[in-house]
Amino acid sequence: MSKDRKKVRVALIGIGNCASSFIQGLQYYKDAPDDAEIPGLMHATVGGYHVRDIEISAAIDVVEGKVGKDVSEAIWAAPNNTIKFADVPYLNVPVSRGMTHDGLGKYVSTVVKKAPGPTDNIVKILKDTGTNVVINFMPVGSEMATKWYVEQALDAGCAFVNGIPVFIASSPYWSKRFEERGLPIVGDDIKSQVGATIMHRVLTSLFVDRGVRLDRTYQLNFGGNTDFMDTGATGGNGNYGGPCPPVGDKAHRYIFTLYALAVDKIEVAGGVPKTGTAGLYGFVLNKGVGPGLLGKASFTATYGR
Ligand SMILES: NC(=O)c1ccc[n+]([C@@H]2O[C@H](COP(=O)([O-])OP(=O)(O)OC[C@H]3O[C@@H](n4cnc5c(N)ncnc54)[C@H](O)[C@@H]3O)[C@@H](O)[C@H]2O)c1
């Protein structure tokens, strides 16, 4: 295989915190040995490709402060808050203007401004830059936007790694579209090394291993970065869509609670950060305001479909 063919040209959609970690990681691990344990990295080589064989071919975002900048600069733009662990040289990859759709949720929209100008020709960019693989790193809930970019990747003949929890690789419709084009599709959702999802999964296995019967389980993410601002929404991005149990399930229970508080602002009294999720508010309301909680009353409703 020629040296050039060994490069994997990768386009990133969403220059947020995952993109920052990824791009910094390419620098940080470029000389990682193949035969030693490396903290932070599970494998330095996969299928004969080393970390240093990955090149950033294109970058796409929709917000001011990122679009138009070189991606090596855009990864440091607010509201990104990934710690700096590597110096990233100028990469000569300007961030293109993508298609917004439902990418900017209700709460994220309060901390970023959409970049002006029309959507760039993404198919052309992917083709002109010789992109092999497109990685989706848009915020949770970007369902329409993801489907739009998937079409662009298919048109441009690129493989797709869906790093977000929207059903693409696991959907028979989309996986067939990739199969027909002879293109790989991987997903859905990535997992950080010791993040919330893997912790949840390990704990559920522990329960099963120890003989505890688990009827149901769910995960609440507390704090986090901008992505968490709109996490927990069940409707469109950031908008509560009402109860939505799986069709045919026995009726689910929904508990509504009214709190009487002696504090003006729950955020101030409970120290809830800007990125506080519904789960964190729930925790603070119950445990975090001490005598500021005067009383509460609940009722339970059931609903099935
Ligand atoms: N960090 C993790 O460990 C982890 C684990 C599993 C899944 N994920 C998923 O990865 C995704 C990215 O996470 P993050 O922490 O980088 O989020 P982030 O909020 O830091 O970054 C998202 C980026 O996408 C951009 N964006 C929004 N709409 C867009 C559009 N239409 N086109 C192009 N760009 C758009 C935003 O401007 C932002 O730069 C999320 O969906 C997250 O749930 C992350």
Protein model, in words:
The chain has about 300 residues and is an alpha/beta fold. It has two domains: about 5-185, NAD(P)-binding Rossmann-like Domain (Rossmann fold); about 245-305, no CATH class. About 25% of the residues lie in helices and about 15% in strands. It has a six-stranded parallel beta sheet, with helices on both faces. Helix 3 (about 120-130) crosses helix 4 (about 145-155). The longest helix is centred in the middle third of the chain and has 14 residues, at about 145-155. The protein starts with 7 loop residues before the first strand and ends with a strand. The model has no long low-confidence stretch (mean pLDDT about 90). Nicotinamide-adenine-dinucleotide (NAD) binds near residues 100, 138, 225 and 227.
Q: What are its keywords?
A:
305 residues, alpha/beta, Rossmann fold, 2 domains, two-stranded antiparallel ribbon, 8 helices, 10 strands, binds nicotinamide-adenine-dinucleotide
Topology of this protein?
Layout: E1 8-13, H1 17-28, E2 45-46, E3 49-50, E4 54-61, H2 71-74, E5 95-97, H3 122-128, E6 133-136, H4 143-156, E7 159-162, H5 172-181, E8 185-186, H6 196-209, E9 252-261, H7 266-270, H8 278-288, E10 293-303
Parallel strand pairs: 1-4, 1-6, 4-5, 6-7, 7-8
Antiparallel strand pairs: 2-3, 9-10
